[in-house]
Specification:
The chain is of the alpha/beta class. It is built from 19 helices and 12 strands. A hairpin with a 2-residue loop joins strand 1 and strand 2.
Length: 513
């Protein structure tokens, strides 16, 4: 028999906080929510990253929405990767119904419908403010890792970036990079080898194939101008609430390389741009990545290493990263070890492998005298989850099986008209949707090639004229009389020259005197 008094005391003490917090719901004992045992997340520890996991249909995306909207309400901007379109509902206030009332009465929290200020962003040609980055902003190291190149190939990429800098050739999009790659093995080969070293055509071919593969996933839309400024992610609305920036990725699900490339670029830019912040009372920004396994799917080892490094370091910039996925092991262990918040919805055990995975998952949570974690993982219902967080001192809280609150905003997808209305009222969409295609490496090199091609007909005409003159002389030389006259003329000329140069003082009678 579980001691209810001891349980309530454990939850109350473990989740107590002196500062501001997010209220997620109430802890459950023997399947019943305990109103006094409220589960709170201190704002102070929200930059310690988190995981929301669970089988399909258990409510993990709704949990993501609950946490994100409450962050916005507390003045914390959020960035959300929306691959299914489900998160757009955060822009509209929810509507109560008997089930929601029953849930909130059970956990002792009033239901107050509310919405968040939203900006819709896009990587493709979907409705929203366009997200772009230039090739030069990646730099040679990051660009090489993105393409999964070896050391030799990475060296060639470094040469291209250096050559572009030396010749003032802007590297903005992929066609700029490809034009320089072709120049390196074509007209500019001699110059490159003289000033930068030998370049293998086999290596450049490998690089070109890697770029074509990236282009096949739509990367040519992502690379270019105008570059997105990450400072636009940390804005507040007129009421001091954080703005929810939602990246619409419904057409990117089958393009994991583009998705992982975008995430790496974004996190790297945030890390480089944001100043060191230390421990803040609340984060500057929290990033939610739904279907997070797509970041790591088909990503190279070098790319994963880079993402892991940024995850470890970005906390000091006041940024929290939250992954939402079906299985915790979709996320590399090096990343899992950095997470402060773990929200685990139900898992399904249909095979022996599933059961082993569940036991292994249970071992990732603090040992609890009130729960049998491995049994709970298969028995908790929709809208319920096992939660382990960090208190204000950074100490893990007791494990709490939580009956979660309902979202204050709408659950579900907005209509295209509703999305279009929000984008039309956006303060940044017009800026980022402006098409800019200024002169860069591709145009400059193309111009030079055209100039060379224009000069070629003139050179050919000169060569032809010279050949015709030579041909005329040759024909003349074939005539015996002409040859004789020619020899006579040449002798007289030679004599004249000799007379001028060496015989001028000779007084011997000649026909010239």
């Amino acid at each position: 028999m579980v001691d209810s008094t001891k349980f309530l005391q454990s939850i109350t003490d473990g989740y107590s906080t002196k500062g501001d917090y997010i209220l997620l719901g109430s802890a459950m004992l023997d399947g019943v929510p305990q109103k006094e045992a409220q589960v709170k997340l201190p704002l102070k520890t929200l930059n310690r990253h988190g995981l929301i996991a669970g089988a399909t249909g258990t409510g993990k995306t709704v949990t993501l929405q609950i946490i994100a909207e409450n962050m916005c309400a507390k003045g914390i901007p959020v960035l959300m990767m929306d691959l299914k379109g489900d998160l757009s509902g955060i822009a509209k206030a929810g509507v109560t119904n008997p089930k929601i009332e029953e849930r909130h009465n059970a956990i002792g929290i009033p239901f107050v419908p509310n919405s968040s200020s939203v900006e819709f962003l896009t990587l493709s040609k979907e409705i929203g403010a366009r997200l772009r980055a230039t090739v030069s902003e990646f730099g040679p190291v990051l660009f090489s890792k993105m393409l999964n190149l070896n050391d030799t190939q990475s060296g060639i990429v470094a040469i291209i970036f250096k050559y572009a800098d030396d010749k003032q050739l802007p590297l903005l999009d992929l066609k700029d990079f490809k034009s320089l790659l072709n120049h390196l093995t074509g007209d500019g080969k001699a110059e490159i080898q003289k000033n930068y070293g030998n370049v293998s055509s086999a290596s450049t071919g490998t690089i070109l194939r890697a770029i074509i593969e990236l282009e096949s996933q739509g990367a040519e839309v992502f690379f270019g101008e105008r570059s997105f400024e990450v400072s636009d992610l940390v804005r507040l609305d007129a009421y001091g609430r954080g703005i929810a920036s939602i990246v619409r990725l419904t057409d990117i699900q089958d393009k994991p390389k583009l998705f992982s490339t975008f995430m790496l670029c974004l996190l790297a830019e945030i890390y480089q741009s944001f100043p060191e912040a230390g421990d803040l009372e609340k984060p500057k920004l929290c990033v939610f990545i739904d279907e997070a396994h797509l970041i790591f799917k088909e990503a190279s080892d070098a790319l994963i290493d880079q993402i892991e490094s940024i995850i470890k370091l970005i906390r000091s910039k006041g940024v929290g990263i939250y992954f939402c996925t079906q299985n915790p092991y979709d996320i590399p262990e090096a990343v899992l070890s950095q997470l402060g918040l773990k929200v685990q919805h139900a898992l399904r055990a249909f095979t022996e492998k599933d059961r082993k995975a569940i036991k292994k998952t249970a071992e990732n949570y603090p040992i609890s005298e009130f729960y049998k974690t491995d049994e709970l993982l298969t028995s908790i219902g929709i809208g319920q989850a096992l939660i382990s967080a960090l208190n204000e001192k950074g100490i893990p809280t007791p494990l709490a099986t939580t009956h979660l609150r309902a979202p204050m905003s709408r659950i579900g997808v907005l209509s295209l008209d509703e999305i279009q209305s929000i984008v039309s009222a956006s303060s940044i969409a017009a800026k980022y949707n402006e098409v800019i295609d200024r002169e860069s490496a591709f145009e400059i090199l193309s111009k030079k090639i055209k100039e060379v091609e224009a000069e070629e007909p003139v050179e050919k005409t000169k060569t032809k004229s010279q050949k015709e003159e030579k041909s005329t002389l040759e024909k003349l030389s074939e005539n015996t009389m002409v040859r004789q006259v020619g020899r006579t003329v040449m002798k007289e000329v030679a004599r004249g020259l000799l007379g001028v140069l060496g015989l001028g003082g000779n007084k011997k009678k000649s026909g010239w005197f």
